[in-house]
Specification:
The complex is a heterodimer of chains A (about 280) and B (about 300). Chain A is mainly alpha-helical. Helices cover about 75% and strands about 0% of the residues of chain A. Chain A is globular, with a radius of gyration of 23 Å. Chain B is mostly helical. Chain B has one domain: MetI-like fold (Orthogonal Bundle). In chain B, strands 1-2 form a two-stranded antiparallel sheet. In chain B, helix 6 crosses helix 9. Classes of the chains: A mainly alpha (about 280), B mainly alpha (about 300). At the A-B interface, helix 1, helix 4, helix 5, helix 6 and helix 7 of A face helix 2, helix 3, helix 5, helix 6 and helix 7 of B.
């Protein structure tokens, strides 16, 4: 009985998670004429299939290619910088006693809950004054600020678990402090840093509010914003299958990351928020 | 309560004895967290103060030279406008329904993930896909799914006409938006609950079983009370996140048929209509309402975030 319940539960989870993904993939193979004429149904009706045509059209689209490039560049830079800064802060929080520790944690918590939209008005105004509007740094800076809380939490949780005495033990055994750091601490801390990096990347890749408010051209517009502005020739009948192809392309990096690092992501998500 | 009176005194007594080493440690610690603090405040506190300042002006980017000080009248305009209250009401509805549904489904998923032994990796990998997918993509997927022209939902629901327009009226459109929101964020909720579930000791459940407690009793008297901290943290995070709902509405209805949330209204005023004065007032009100909700949840459910993270 218990086993059957778990089995049904597993099936439910799989359907829940994968049905919309299968749907959007199926949609991306419907031909554009079928979409204009209306083609209800989960799978493309016979004769409505477009093969790889939609993918070809999407990848031939200069704006979309540019958006992919922007998204990858901006997300990677923001992730790298955010993780470096968060590592410094998390090390201090996990290992040192200092005044202001609580302030850091409270600030991080407050920012994690901040209503992002309430910032876009003033940021829009400020960024135009500073020449940051519609540039890569104009998005990288807010992405860093908003991923720091998550990164700091995840990392300080990981760092607290590291047996730091091993560093001294290695030094007693004759290692220099650099060797002790590189051979002992780095391998122990790396998984945590890595997890923080993945979660940060997800945030930057997913962001929409900053993406549409702080950019105006393809110079810096990331994928989510580009997808939402991608209306095709007829704004009242969106090119659903073309959009679906774009959506699938933008999801591929996420699926690859999830497939490779599943264990790390779960550990990071749960350790940062609930455990110490 | 008495300890709070005693604690500062001992701290004061210790103060003169701070060693050089402790001082150096404080300096190093502050230096290491400084970049993070500066970055977090530059992008949040500073613009928020600027919004506070701008909200006192009648200021439109289309006519910047006409900027004039109007005091609190922007707030008066916003707070007396039925549109503000309507969007706030819709936003609260989004928050309550999505968080409620996610809590139930998320808990079921967490129980399944906690129990399952085989195929653990497959389950966890698939649950991360909605979590990682771009919200805009989720919005599109569900918008097209609900579309009567190209979607499958009408065909699958026998009690609906095939040409039923989900986005033609408030109620079905709100439901469609909620479905997308719930689909995307339930995995996050279930992972947080899974972590809480893992902390409930098996011995306690076993003991309750021996004492003759039914499954239902064990769930309500043993499991749930023992994972209270995890539940509360999950609810707090998700509720504040749901209150900011924006992406799905933008993609699925663009605020049509009264589906607009308070975030969307603020965005429309500032970015689309360039009304920075009234938009800033709305930004401040949005910020304050998030604070109120956070405060309410923390007070009502006595969430202790510090102890939940074993910080205290």
């Amino acid at each position: 009985m218990r086993k059957v319940g778990t089995l049904i539960g597993c099936a439910l989870i799989l359907v829940w998670c994968l049905l919309p993904v299968v749907w959007i993939i199926s949609l991306s193979f419907k031909s554009q004429t079928a979409i204009t004429n209306g083609s209800p149904g989960f799978f493309p009706a016979s004769g409505d299939s477009a093969g790889w045509q939609n993918y070809q059209d999407v990848l031939d689209n200069e704006q979309f290619r540019r958006a992919i490039f922007n998204s990858i560049g901006i997300s990677l830079i923001a992730t790298l910088l955010s993780v470096v800064i968060a590592t410094l802060a998390a090390y201090a929080i996990a290992r040192l006693e200092f005044q202001g520790k609580r302030f850091v944690l409270t600030t991080a918590l407050a920012i994690a809950m901040f209503p992002v939209v309430s910032l876009v008005g003033p940021l829009f105004d400020m960024w135009r004054a500073f020449g940051l509007y519609d540039t890569w740094p104009g998005l990288i800076i807010p992405y860093m600020s908003f991923t720091l809380p998550l990164a700091i939490w995840t990392l300080s949780a990981f760092f607290r678990e590291i047996p730091w005495e091993m560093e001294q033990a290695a030094q007693v055994d004759g290692a220099t402090s650099w060797q002790a750091f590189r051979k002992v601490i780095v391998p122990l801390a790396a998984p945590g840093v890595f997890t923080a990096a993945i979660l940060t990347f997800f945030f930057a890749w997913n962001d929409f509010v900053f993406g549409i408010s702080l950019t105006s051209t393809e110079r810096a517009r990331p994928i989510p914003a580009a997808l939402s502005f991608f209306v095709g020739s007829d704004p009242f009948n969106r090119p659903a299958s073309l959009l679906a192809a774009g959506a699938v392309v933008s999801t591929i990096p996420i699926i690859i990351i999830v497939l490779i690092f599943q264990r790390k992501i779960v550990a990071g998500l749960t350790s940062g928020a609930v455990k110490g | 309560m008495t300890t709070t009176v005693v604690a500062p005194r001992t701290e004061r007594q210790q103060k003169p004895e701070v060693s050089d080493r402790a001082k150096a440690e404080t300096r190093l610690g502050q230096k290491l967290v400084a970049p993070a603090i500066v970055l977090m405040l530059v992008v949040t506190a500073f613009p928020m103060l600027r919004a506070l300042y701008l909200s006192l002006f009648n200021y439109s980017l289309t006519a910047p030279e006409d900027r004039e000080f109007v005091g609190l009248s922007n707030y008066a305009t916003a707070l007396t406008d039925p549109l503000f209250w309507k969007t706030t009401g819709v936003t609260v509805l989004y928050m309550l329904v999505t968080v409620g549904v996610e809590l139930v489904i998320g808990f079921v998923f967490a129980m399944v993930m906690h129990r399952v032994i085989f195929a653990r990796g497959v389950i966890r990998t698939s649950i991360l896909i909605p979590y990682g997918i771009i919200t805009v993509v989720s919005g599109f997927a569900w918008q097209f799914a609900f579309s009567f022209q190209n979607g499958f939902v009408n065909g699958w629901l026998p009690f609906l006409d095939t040409d039923f327009n989900w986005f033609g009226d408030t109620t079905p459109a709100v439901i469609a938006i909620m479905v997308s929101e719930i689909w995307k964020t339930t995995p996050f909720m279930s992972l947080l609950l899974l972590a809480g579930l893992a902390q409930v000791s098996e011995d306690m459940i076993e003991a309750a079983k021996v004492d003759g407690a039914t499954w239902w009793q064990r769930l309500w008297k043993v499991v749930l009370p023992n994972m209270r901290a995890a539940i509360m943290v999950a609810v707090l995070f998700r509720a504040l996140d749901a209150y900011r709902i924006f992406d799905n509405i933008f993609v699925m209805t663009a605020g049509a048929v009264n589906t607009e949330s308070i975030s969307f209204l603020t965005y429309r005023q500032t970015i689309e209509q360039f009304q920075l004065g009234i938009g800033s007032a709305l930004s401040v009100l949005l910020f304050l309402s998030v604070l109120v909700i956070a405060w309410l949840i923390v007070k009502l459910f006595k969430v202790d975030l510090a102890s939940a993270r074993q910080e205290g």
